[in-house]
Amino acid sequence: MSDGLRRLSPLAGPDAALVVDTREEERQLGTRSQGFSERRLLYRTSRAHVELRIPVAALGGEDAWLCGHYVLADEARRGGGANPVRFCLTDDAGHVETVEGSETGEFVLACDPLRPFTLVCEDATGAVSVLRYRP
Q: Which residue range is the domain that position 37 belongs to?
C-alpha cells in the first residue's frame, strides 16, 4: 500500500458523486426487482469514472466479491496514463482489503455487501478518489 493510501483515513469524506444506482432506479420507476444477482453503481470523480458491481448477498456462506472498473476521464487521459491504480476497501467493521488494478483498470475485492464501506482509489500520479458505499 502506498503512503497516500496509508495516510488517508477510511473515514475521510467521499469526493465521488454517485451517478447511477440500479437499486434506486428500480425504486424511482416503481418497478419490481428483476432479480438481479448484483447491484451496479457508477461514481464520477474529477479524474475518473468508477463502476462497481456488488453482489446482492453472499451465497452459501462464501465470500462475496466486488468487481470494479476504473476509467480515466478524457481530461485525465490527455494528461498521461494513470495505471496502475491501487484500491483499498475499508468496511465499517474495520476490515481492510487492498489490491492493484489491472492495466485496463479492472479490480476485484472481497466485501460484505450488507456492510457500508469506503473505497479509496489512488492512481500512479498520486491522485486519490474516495467512494462511499451504503447497502
A: 3-133
Residues 6+ apart with CB under 8 A from 33: 26
- Domain containing 99 — which CATH number? 2.60.40.10
C-alpha neighbours within 13 Å on the C-beta side of residue 129: 24
CA-CA distance, 50 to 86, in Å (whole number)? 13
Q: Count how many domains the chain has.
A: 1
C-alpha cell read off for 24:
434506486
| Residues with Cβ within 8 Å of residue 44, at least 6 apart in sequence | 16, 17, 19, 50, 73
pTM: 0.78
Lookup: cell for 128: 486519490
Of how many residues is the chain composed?
Answer: 135
Give pLDDT tens digits for 73-113: 875 565 555 567 999 999 999 999 999 999 889 999 999 88
What is the Cα–Cα distance from 94 to 2, expressed in whole angstroms? 19
